[in-house]
Design goal:
With about 150 residues, the protein is an all-alpha fold. It is built from five helices and no strands. The chain has a domain of about 50 residues. Helix 1 packs across helix 2 and helix 1 runs parallel beside helix 3.
């Protein structure tokens, strides 16, 4: 069953826990003292955690030896993503070659002869005109009442 605590109680419990490992500054220490004086449940929590901490710290340290074998570091996510991208690219190229793509991966177009300019028409949205239409020979300007 979950217990709903106020924000003040959560803050006080966090400060009580923190006070066991470091010295609190003046303001947090005073806020904790004020809250513990008015909230019995948080005062019990602070006393219980302090008692448990002192019991654990009073016991002598026990030397232990732990061997971990066969532990592998997982590959970094960046490496995994790069491998997945390379596999997807290889698969798509393989499928494209099986589909009869004899023209090669890219369609090549012949370059225009030197000195010749190729103009590709551009489809513009309705109501927009190319700027070059304003400067064409014999064009009549519709701006500024001309």
């Amino acid at each position: 069953m979950s217990v709903v605590r106020s924000r003040a109680c959560e803050t006080a419990r966090a400060l009580a826990s923190r006070s066991l490992v470091e010295t609190l500054d003046v303001v947090p220490r005073e806020l904790l003292a004020l809250h513990l004086a008015t909230c019995g449940e948080c005062a019990r929590f602070a006393a219980d955690t302090e008692a448990a901490t002192h019991l654990l710290r009073r016991e002598p340290l026990v030397a232990t030896r732990v061997e971990v074998r066969g532990l592998r570091r997982p590959a970094p996510r960046r490496t995994v993503n790069a491998i997945a991208a390379a596999a997807a690219a290889a698969l798509s190229l393989g499928l494209a070659s099986l589909a009869g793509g004899s023209a090669g991966p890219l369609t090549q177009t012949a370059a225009p002869p030197p000195g010749r300019v190729v103009v590709v028409p551009v489809k513009l949205p309705i109501g927009q005109r190319l700027a070059e239409a304003e400067f064409a020979v014999g064009a009549r300007s519709t701006r500024f009442g001309a």
